[in-house]
Amino acid sequence: MAQVRLERLRKSFGDNVVVDDLDLTIADQEFLTLVGPSGCGKSTTLRMICGLEKLGSGEVYFDSEPVGYLPANKRDVSMVFQSYALYPHKTVEQNIGFALQMMRVPKSEIGERVRKTAASLGIENLLGRKPRELSGGQRQRVALGRAIVRDAGAYLLDEPLSNLDAQLRGDMRVELKRLHADLARTFIYVTHDQVEAMTMSDRIAVMQGGVLQQCAPPEEIYGKPANMFVAQFMGSPPMNFFTGGLTDVEGRRTFRSPAAVLALTEEASRAAEDFPAGEVVLGIRPEDVILGEPGDADAADSLQGTVFVAEPLGADVLVTVDLGGELIKARVPAPFRVGIDKAVPVRLRADRAHLFAKESGASLFSPSQWAPQPTPIAPASDRPTDS
Questions:
Q1: CA angle 320, 321, 325 (to 5 degrees)
Q2: Where would I find the ABC transporter domain in this sequence (predicted)?
Q3: At what angle do helices 107-121 and 166-183 cross, to 10 degrees?
């Protein structure tokens, strides 16, 4: 299987349209993640690719061959379910080898492939156990083993890590990414967790209301979101938004809102010449909000806020700041020692500012250069600038 192609895929349940004219191509050996909130249509899309859900309209192609008419067992795919779907009366060895047994593979070959698969997942010592004797992480490995033992053309994974604790999810993300590299097969992964999507994917397809919002590599999804929904959904914490207008101050385009004033960069100012009239939305990532020290002598050009709450995260601190009656998030290096309700100077990095249309939410401008590293607290004169 060289690629999976979805062409004008549509599915509805009664009057509820869950997938709406979806066009998407997944390349051979690509790790593509469908991500979005609950009810956005991502799992339904996966089930239509697999053949567990009938197409409403449109077509699914494997290479150039349409497969929408084929039942699930006739498609060269293997699926991992959120609930694991293990047979409780069978051992781990029997669960992993069941698909091969149904394909009438010789018993000697089944045993060899099951042992090889179990060894690759580190569960070779569990082959004689029943699912009830396993932990959640071990059950997840068995479910993965049952899928990869088939050597399918594509592997479909429907939120396989959602039942695991945070530490185990992190470990399994690493294992899945390594497994994809070792198998050299197409992976189509469904999750509502943007951290899973960002850390594992070659490309991310963001969906909302059954409609594809953007499909791009993780760094582009984060650095150049197509609209406000993508900007807010992909990021933890999400992007800060300010609604206001653009004016000319001393020959430079300046954004003004009740909570913020920011002179735009030359790059943004040139782009703003073509903006439609009306209000716009300024977007700033939390790591691009710079907090100074109370009483900072260089804070004359800063906005004045008060600390609402601070949440230590180890190396970083997530600070919620009340900025003119509007709460925004800042991610700053630890330690942060300004107390709750204390005044703090706030600077927004103009070179990292995004602009969106207020009505449609579409992106009007994103910085051409973007770096994901957090910005240290520093006076305005010492702040890094792009060359």
A1: 125
A2: 4-234
A3: 130
CA distances from 155 to 75, 83, 176, 376 (A): 11, 16, 11, 42
Asked if residue 19 has pLDDT above 70, the reply is: yes
Distance, in Å, from the CA atom of 383 to the CA atom of 336, rounded to the nearest integer, reads: 18
* Angstrom distance (rounded) from CA 168 to CA 366: 35
Encoding tokens for residue 262? Answer: 């920011």
Taking residue 174's Cβ as centre, other Cβ atoms within 10 Å add up to: 11
Report the C-alpha gap between 66 and 128 in whole angstroms: 41
Residue 209 DSSP label: T
Q: Which domains does the chain have, with CATH numbers?
A: 3-225 (3.40.50.300), 237-382 (2.40.50.140)
Work out the burial of residue 107: count CB atoms within 10 Å of its CB; fewer than 13 is exposed, 13-18 middle, 19 or more buried: exposed
> Taking the chain, what is the end-to-end CA distance rounded to the nearest angstrom?
45
Task: Tell me how far apart the alpha carbons of residues 210 and 173 are, in angstroms, rounded to a whole number.
Answer: 26
Cα(329)–Cα(350) distance, rounded to whole angstroms?
A: 16
**Which tokens sit at 344?**
């703090």
Query: CA nearest 152: which of 56, 81, 50?
Result: 50
The vertex-40 CA angle with 202 and 56, nearest 5°, equals: 100
Q: What are the pLDDT digits (tens) for 87-131? A: 999 999 999 999 888 888 898 899 999 998 888 888 889 999 999
Q: Which two tokens stand for residue 23?
A: 């066009």
pLDDT of residue 386: 42
Angle between helices 92-102 and 107-121 (to 10 degrees): 130
Digit-coded pLDDT (tens) for 285-298 = 999 999 988 766 55
- Dig out the tokens for 353 from the structure: 């500012």
**Are 43 and 191 a contacting pair, CB within 8 Å?**
no
> What is the rounded CA–CA span in Å between residue 1 and residue 62?
6
Residue 358: DSSP 8-state: T
Which among 59, 12, 47 has a CA at the least distance from the CA of 157? 47
Taking CA atoms, 118 is separated from 115, 122, 272, 369, in Å, by: 5, 6, 57, 45
